Amino acid sequence: MKEILIDTDYIKLDQFLKLVGLVQTGGQAKIIIDEGNIIVNDEVAFQRGKKIRKNDIVKIKDYGSFIIV
């Protein structure tokens, strides 16, 4: 599991996907999220603006797992 450091209270899910290099645009993030490929804390996330906070675990199908620190 890779650690991702954020220096704010939270990061939105679509911005997180850009941060880890999975997508380059919000449109690409929307497609991946809408397909149900993102799991946050053991629940499928369908909201682009979902707030990802420290200690959250994000799993991306065929890409890997991340913990926010």
Automatic annotation (TrEMBL):
- What InterPro entries does UniProt report for this protein, alphabetically? S4_RNA-bd_sf
A GO molecular function for this record? RNA binding
Q: Which domain of life is it from?
A: Bacteria
Q: Which UniProt keywords are listed?
A: RNA-binding
The protein in question is named Ribosome-associated protein
